Prior knowledge:
The complex is a heterodimer. Chain A is of the alpha/beta class.
Amino acid sequence: xxxxxxxxxxxxxxxxxxxxxxxxxxxxxxxxxxxxxxxxxxxxxxxxxxxxxxxxxxxxxxxxxxxxxxxxxxxxxxxxxxxxxxxxxxxxxxxxxxxxxxxxxxxxxxxxxxxxxxxxxxxxxxxxxxxxxxxxxxxxxxxxxxxxxxxxxxxxxxxxxxxxxxxxxxxxxxxxxxxxxxxxxxxxxxxxxxxxxxxxxxxxxxxxxxxxxxxxxxxxxxxxxxxxxxxxxxxxxxxxxxxxxxxxxxxxxxxxxxxxxxxxxxxxxxxxxxxxxxxxxxxxxxxxxxxxx
Amino acid sequence: xxxxxxxxxxxxxxxxxxxxxxxxxxxxxxxxxxxxxxxxxxxxxxxxxxxxxxxxxxxxxxxxxxxxxxxxxxxxxxxxxxxxxxxxxxxxxxxxxxxxxxxxxxxxxxxxxxxxxxxxxxxxxxxxxxxxxxxxxxxxxxxxxxxxxxxxxxxxxxxxxxxxxxxxxxxxxxxxxxxxxxxxxxxxxxxxxxxxxxxxxxxxxxxxxxxxxxxxxxxxxxxxxxxxxxxxxxxxxxxxxxxxxxxxxxxxxxxxxxxxxxxxxxxxxxxxxxxxxxxxxxxxxxxxxxxxxxxxxxxxxxxxxxxxxxxxxxxxxxxxxxxxxxxxxxxxxxxxxxxxxxxxxxxxxxxxxxxxxxxxxxxxxxxxxxxxxxxxxxxxxxxxxxxxxxxxxxxxxxxxxxxxxxxxxxxxxxxxxxxxxxxxxxxxxxxxxxxxxxxxxxxxxxxxxxxxxxxxxxxxxxxxxxxxxxxxxxxxxxxxxxxxxxxxxxxxxxxxxxxxxxxxxxxxxxxxxxxxxxxxxxxxxxxxxxxxxxxxxxxxxxxxxxxxxxxxxxxxxxxxxxxxxxxxxxxxxxxxxxxxxxxxxxxxxxxxxxxxxxxxxxxxxxxxxxxxxxxxxxxxxxxxxxxxxxxxxxxxxxxxxxxxxxxxxxxxxxxxxxxxxxxxxxxxxxxxxxxxxxxxxxxxxxxxxxxxxx
Lengths: 293, 694
């Protein structure tokens, strides 16, 4: 039976993803046994230490070899391995619709689809939140193939609209994230970095590992047009007549400074940050999040 | 100031001046739309950049607008008029050009005469005339000399006449020329009218001009040619004293010179009288006058008029370096005797008879005429008759010695000089006899010219006499009266009255009756009478007729006995040419009622009237001394006088009339603006690059 065809998850991408494994770099809290180390001790192959047998312990956990040597009952304990939760929040505001060949939203959707696939393939659970200036839709955690298909369908039905407010969206998303895990925010972050990180700090306090993926179009970094243009803000509709040639350098400086501010704030708060342009392949973003087999 | 565009057809192009602004506005208002993800950063940048860019943009916009405006204005050919009355180039014009052709215009400056410069200016003005314009030229001379009798369109002919014209030796009559120009313009209708005066504006002549301001619609332009100084040494006057010497009398020839320059000048004055030649070196301080005197004996001269000549060394203005005069030795002085009283007539006659150089004739006042050419008229007992005739005689130069008749009302004296009478009472002059003591006479003005030879006392006192009768009351009758001999009680015995018309009247109140007076019995009496005649004779008409100086431009008169004498009479100019003449009868201008009058003279020197090949009279035409001072009014002074709407120098004459073309300045401005625009653009670009590097 041929694999279903998704707009944002191509078979060739699936083939490439086979070489990757979802491995967030912190300990997670989960209910299902999985590949991720947990603070809870439980049956697993990772030995932790020995302790005195007490009534009620499973006799199967007794280490008979130690009893034979010491004539005492010791029980071996192991670190419990569990599945991890990955919450992906995809910015779908109007500004994400910008881009000539590939819009930022398409690029981000491809990355989201690939990440979701990778997470579920690794036996972990993934949730998807679509936001603009609030949470527009949310698919709770799931790790099944059906869940993955739902994610793909959601992404395909998604369109850029409304203004961006990452901070507001993250504040709204907080109650939806019951399990600790990873928070992946994919956006162009045309918002005040201070407010964004103020909103994300709550996740950090709760022990979430936060990943920020900053997606920009090459036209945004280079200010592509060369002649006088009326720039229309895709989110607000505000108009501004500018000759790009005259301000290109200032703009470049400004956007670099904006990126630098986000990056610096991320470093200070232990947030993983990665920026990518839509003219590069989204696989480069996995460097922060997954590891090669 | 009026601004006019010669190329007004291109006025629509002026709209192009708004091009930069329009491009700016259009470019700003409708650029292609570009949907951009977020203007957040752009707005921040623009807010900062606009603060710097906007002044640049506005300055560039301004410079570009000005640049295009300047270029458009260059093509519109703007002309600036200083005179609002001046016709615009497209208007029909009536122009009268008054060109000063007076003698001072012969002054040389920068290698050309002032007149040549005036010709050039006038030629430029004529060249600028349109086909519909009318013009005329009037040369300012002693008598205005127009080319056409009225304005005409034949500018080419005017130009030809202008080229052929030459400066005259005449003084200029500006007032007459100006009036003639106004007359000509008054005949024309429906065009802009202009009088353009091209002259050196010689200070001496133009400062005292008095002319009626033209109609307000007539624009008056003064174009000054020549400088303001004009160094010159001039002979101003040549005279002989006495002008008509009696045979054997010594003659003093005098010549007045002037140094019209700011430097002292040395010159040699040459004198020539027949075969007599003499010279004298004179040093003239700056701006001064001097007199050179030479003496000659009248015995050497004939009874015919003998010309004499003064000359000086050549200078830059040679026209006034020569001067001529005539001196004629006279056999006698003509004295007329009139009046009914026996005394003092008998005594006067007896005294005059002792003087061989006096010719006495008995005349009656009724039959007297100026043609009698009396030098003196003695009236014994004037009864108030013919005062008008006496007035005319005195004005013509006859000195009247009048002894009023007893019973004459003092008010009747007023008729001799109306307006100058100062008598306070209207009493009758009555003969008053001395009661016991006789009336003594004494000199009231011992230093008067008629008592000159008595001053040293060698000839006694001319007034020391005793009289038994006198007329009374003899007050001061006229304003210009001078008491010469007075009675001891202060009454007038002899007084001289000088009138404004130049006439001289002696009021005689000295009783000469031998039984009632010893005045005539004294030895001083005849010398006194002789001195009175000799000292007063300068003004006598017979002399004036010969010493009368004429200036170029004036006509010469030759009195003749009958109209038939006209045929065969001709006038030879100093250069030997023959001047046209015609008969003049009853003209006041001529000293005689029948005379031959010549056409206007032009040359200076000796003119000879000839009849049948013989010289019957000689006349002298001298350079007008008023033209020798070549100093001129400055443009500032001319502007202050207010007679002209526009005052221009030779250099900017055309511009003043036709307006100043300002396109060269606009072109220069356009270049300047282009440079400024480049500089500002460069600076703006540099600033942008610098900002970008940051």
